[in-house]
Design brief:
Layout: H1 16-26, E1 38-49, E2 52-64, E3 69-73, H2 80-87, E4 95-100, E5 103-104, H3 110-119, E6 121-124, H4 138-148, H5 155-171, H6 187-199, E7 205-209, H7 217-234, E8 237-241, H8 245-250, E9 253-258, E10 261-272, E11 278-286, H9 298-303, E12 310-314, E13 319-323
Helix pairs in contact: 4-5, 4-6, 6-7
The protein binds adenosine-5'-triphosphate and magnesium ion.
């Protein structure tokens, strides 16, 4: 008997999860940054408008491990938002490579990109109003990404969604706000709902562009605590762009971007001394790119009047850099 199109068994396209696994399996274990949550290699983004070119990213290199909580800092115009919108799948780089959770951001089709934005990354904007739909309640806003994911509308499906909404609201302590619309919420409450929306489909990576920029410092502290909760409890890799020195000081790793490149980073770890006293050990590092370039801190260069050319010598366990001793030579 010939089957009608309706009766033919539907062949499910491989899920994004499967595609990701395959891509990871195919990658050589020694490949640059293999297994990391986020890998950017020589990433370039050039904007051209009215004949003027702006190189927003100039060969940026960045690796972020799974489960990390990282702050991105840098002067205005240094390329932070450009990087984040690329990682969010909202913009495409001009050159280089960017991989998030095994997904190649330059090679994705439009359909894959849509799935990527729904399932692999959650994104939170600075502008609180931009994160939520004004005519939906907090709970409806959180349920929406799950509905858009394209699961069939079954009773079991909607029960599962309701449970997930409740779980997220509980984790972010916003259960009492479930039935309020965004205009009935404070800025801080809206951002906490926005984190729940971003986490609805349980993406492995959460990105936020100045999520506390519109909030006072006390509220900002509460929001930052919510990011920590998500990172700790759900194992989500979290990247936050911030100008807030308090936020930057509270994460294990702060990466600074300068002129479209990662320039330096601060790593912090808690150390316990012989009396059992805990303190945070902070160390600044500069990035060494794959061609051997380093960007030295401006304050160091100014302190020793170094410019243009420096003398470099190899010692047994370090490299010495001194002011040019043959100026003009
Ligand atoms: N769509 C665009 N068209 C043209 N130039 C752009 C565009 N988006 C960003 N730029 C330029 O790229 C550079 C980097 O901008 P970006 O928004 O990434 O900076 P930022 O680090 O996020 O700054 P801020 O801290 O002010 O938010 C800037 O010079 C900016 O003017
Ligand atoms: Mg920005």
């Amino acid at each position: 008997m010939k089957s009608t199109p309706q009766e033919r068994p539907t062949v499910e396209a491989p899920s994004l999860q499967e595609l990701r696994q395959r891509a990871l399996a195919a990658a050589s274990p020694k490949a640059y940054g293999a297994g990391a949550a986020i890998v950017c290699d020589r990433l370039v983004r050039i904007f051209s408008s009215e004949g003027i070119e702006v190189q927003a990213l100039q060969g940026l290199e960045l690796t972020i491990q799974q489960g990390d909580l990282v702050a991105l800092v840098g002067a205005s115009g240094s390329g932070k938002s450009t990087l984040l919108t690329i990682l969010a799948g909202l913009d495409v780089p001009t050159a280089g490579t960017a991989t998030v959770d095994g997904c190649d951001l330059l090679e994705m089709s439009a359909k894959e990109r849509l799935r990527y934005r729904r399932e692999v990354v959650g994104f939170i904007w600075q502008q609180t109003a931009r994160n939520l739909l004004p005519f939906l309640t907090a709970a409806e806003n959180i349920a929406l990404p799950m509905q858009l994911r394209g699961r069939r509308a079954t009773a079991a499906g909607s029960k599962g969604r309701a449970a997930r909404v409740a779980e997220l609201m509980d984790a972010l302590e916003i259960g009492h706000l479930a039935h309020r619309r965004p205009n009935e919420l404070s800025g801080g409450q809206q951002q906490r709902v926005a984190i729940a929306v971003a986490m609805a489909n349980n993406p492995p990576v959460l990105l936020a562009d100045e999520p506390t920029g519109e909030l006072d410092s006390e509220t900002a502290g509460v929001i930052f605590e919510s990011f920590r909760t998500v990172n700790r409890e759900l194992g989500t890799t979290v990247v936050i762009v911030t100008h807030d020195p308090m936020v930057a000081a509270e994460v294990r790793r702060t990466v600074a971007i300068r002129d479209g490149r990662t320039s330096s980073e601060v790593l912090r770890r808690t150390v316990t001394d012989e009396h059992g006293e805990e303190s945070v050990n902070e160390r600044e590092y500069v990035m060494l790119d794959r061609t051997g370039r380093v960007q030295l801190p401006v304050k160091f260069l100014e302190a020793l009047g170094m410019e243009h050319r420096v003398a470099v010598d190899l010692a047994t366990d370090h490299i010495e850099i001194r002011p040019d001793d043959l100026v003009g030579g």
